[in-house]
Structures are given as C-alpha cells and as structure tokens.
Amino acid sequence: MNKQLITSLLLLTVLTLSGCSDQLNLENAATPLAFGIDLDKNDKLQYFSTMPVYSRKKDRQSQQSSGTTNTLRQAKTRQDAFTAGNWQGRNLKVILIGKRLVQHEGWFEMLDVLFRDARNTVMDRVVIVDGKVSELFYLNNVEQPQMPILIRGMVDTKSKKSETYATTVQELHRQFYEKGVTPYMAEVKMTKKDIGLEGSALLNQKGKYVASLNAQETVLLSLLQKKAAPGVSLSYRIPSEPKTGPFATDIISFSASKIKTKIKTSYHNDRFQFDFRINMTITLFERLFTFDVSNEDNKLEQLIGKQMNAEIEKVIKKVQKHQIDPIGLGVHARAFEYEAYKKVEDRWGEAVQDAVINVKLELSIGSMGPVT
Predict the structure, then answer these.
(1) SS3 category, 283
(2) Nearest to 234 by CA among 258, 263, 255
(3) CA dihedral sign of residues 201, 315, 276, 219
(4) Which part of the chain has CATH 3.30.300.210?
(5) Residues 158, 127 contacting (CB under 8 angstroms)
(6) Pairing mode, if any, of strands 86-87 and 233-237?
(7) Mind listing the pLDDT tens digit for each residue in 194-228?
C-alpha cells in the first residue's frame, strides 16, 4: 500500500512539473526582431535592438534600445533595464554589423554568446552595414515595413536570385572555422531614408572586411561557387553596338534557364590550378539594338560570352588580390590534392593568390523571347 501511495505521489509530481525549467511566459518576454553592433567614434562597442510596438498609433512602429558595452551578454542585461519583459534573442530576424567594426580583426569572438547560449536562434541573417548601424535602428519610415522584416525579406528574396547571400549565424560560424573558405555575407546601405541591398561583403580568414561585390558580381561569384540557381539575371553592354543619343541602346539582358559548373583541381610546379567549365542556356529578356538573332545566334553568344568572361575574371582578380577564398577553392584542393593543400593550409590566401584559375564559358541562346 505504501509503495502504491509513493508511486502515485511521484507520478503526480512528474505530471505537474514544467517541461522546461527556464520557461518564460509570453507576457513577460521582450521579443526584439533585430540586433546590431558597431563601433562609435571612440572605438567603443555599441549595441542596438528594436522590437515591435503593438499600437494603433502609426507614428511609432517599434521600440529601440542602445548603448555601449564590453560584451554582448552585458548588453542583454542592460537592455532588460529598459524593456517591460526579459530580453530574448529567440525571434531575431537579422543581426546587423557595422563595417567600421569588421574592419578590425577579432570581432567574431565577440559573438560567442550567440553560439554558447543554446536559447539563441542561429538562423537569423547576418548583414554588414555600409555606414552607421544606428541610422537603420532609428529610421522611422511609416511608409515601409519594419526594418528587421524589410531587411530579412530583401536578403532572403535576393539570395534566391544569387544577388546576395542569406548567411545565417550558424553558416557564419562554419565559414570562420572552415580553413578552405573565407566568410561572405549580405551588405546593405541606407541612402537618405531608404535601405538598399548593395550585394555582398567579403572578409579575409581573420574576419576583416576587405572588399565588396555588387549584385551582378555576386551572381558571378555564385556561378563559381556552384550555388547559382536557374533564373539568375545579368545585363551587359555590347561595345560593337552603337548608342542612340542619350539612350543606352547597346545593352542586352538575359536570364539563365540552365546552369552547370564543373571544377577541375590540379597541382603543378608548386602551384594549384583550378579549371572552371561553365555551361549556360540563356533566355533573352531585353535587347535594345538591332540584331538578327535567328541567323546569327552564334555571333551574339560569343559577344555576350566575351563580356561575361571579362567580368568573371575581374571577380577572380579581386579575390586573388585580397588573398581571400569565398569560392571555396580550398575545399576542392583538400579533396583532390590533400598533401599539397596541407602544406599551405595555414596560409591558404597566399596560395590562392598564386594559383592559376582558368574559366571556360559556353553560352547557348535557348529563347530570344516572343518578338524578333
């Protein structure tokens, strides 16, 4: 009888216990949608956050908090003092990082709490801000969606078109600790009161900002990464075609309906060699000059291919100049030339700069549109 009583009491206790020891009721939580870090003019670490305000008043969409701190964990404690609930990072949409901050090495270590505290989400998008992070957080444009939702939407949408990268916190962590690649992420800039997506920001192995790519250059980098999905759009000027007055009538625009990228890795004379072969079937979307595509499609393919190949080479030269590897050539080198790669693993950027990188591009026009 005593055993049955004890068993019943234990069962009742287990059933009434909370399934999570650190439960937090919704009414006691503060749910920021964006978090930002930057350096002020005195190189002090700044933090920013914004959370939605549920009110019928249209003059204020969100509540902001900011200040200076030594660590991000301390920033959470300070933000709790200015919010009605406990500050939580579980619903963050974006993390905005000022370019001034990433021009210093060692900033990545400051994000330790994002990975160590398991209550934080690791799917929020990491975005570099070309300018002051504070300007984005204190932007109060009632004509636009809330800043976190706007930036998250822009990044996710444009990344599907390979015009930027939806780099998550988890992916950023992988890029920093993967020796065969250097970090890259989306970059935004505010012009007057409008937030615009610039393309992508490139960092070196130590996390220091070194270069940026515009949207079209990012598409080409995605081609080299084998990440470009069908539907990417590109535009080029054809030098052999004349311009009419003030109008740019020498431009052709197209999208890629089929993309196939192959990479061959080899090692000769103490240098790595990477041979890219890119095959694309394209659909013409815009042609502002007269051209007999039906009978001279091969000529037009060569003209487009020449311009595109030249721009790809510029992207590669930029990568080699800064001794970075957003393409992930180190991953291929480690897979196919392991012994040679291990010798230069700790100075892979120098090896990329010295490497021979060849690109062979083959274009074919699949459709010229419903008009001739």
Answers:
(1) strand
(2) 255
(3) positive
(4) 230-372
(5) no
(6) unpaired
(7) 899 999 999 999 999 999 999 999 999 999 999 99
Residue with tokens 């990188």: 357
- What residues form DSSP beta bridges with 128? 97, 187
Selection from 259, 251, 285, 253 nearest residue 367 by Cα: 285
Instruction: Using DSSP bridges, classify how beta strands 271-287 and 356-367 pair: parallel, antiparallel or unpaired.
Output: parallel
Report which DSSP code applies to 247. Answer: B
In the prediction, which pLDDT does 15 show?
62
Q: Indicate whether 56 pLDDT > 70.
A: no
Question: And the tokens for 342?
Answer: 């291990």
The verdict on pTM exceeding 0.70 is yes
pLDDT exceeds 70 at position 48: yes
Cα 319 to Cα 210: distance, rounded to the nearest angstrom? 10
Pairing type for strands 29-30 and 194-203 reads unpaired
Instruction: State the Cα–Cα distance between residues 327 and 330, nearest whole angstrom.
Output: 8
Are 54 and 146 within 8 A, CB to CB?
no
- Predicted confidence at residue 28, as pLDDT, reads 47
Is 230-372 in CATH node 3.30.300.210?
yes
Nearest alpha-carbon partner for 121 in 156, 142, 95: 95
Output phi, psi for 126, to 5 deg. -100, 125
Q: Which of 39, 37, 67, 36 is nearest to 50 (CA)?
A: 36
Taking alpha carbons only, the member of 272, 361, 281 closest to residue 313 is 361
**Cβ-contact 300, 292 below 8 angstroms:** no
Please state the rounded mean pLDDT for residues 74-82: 80
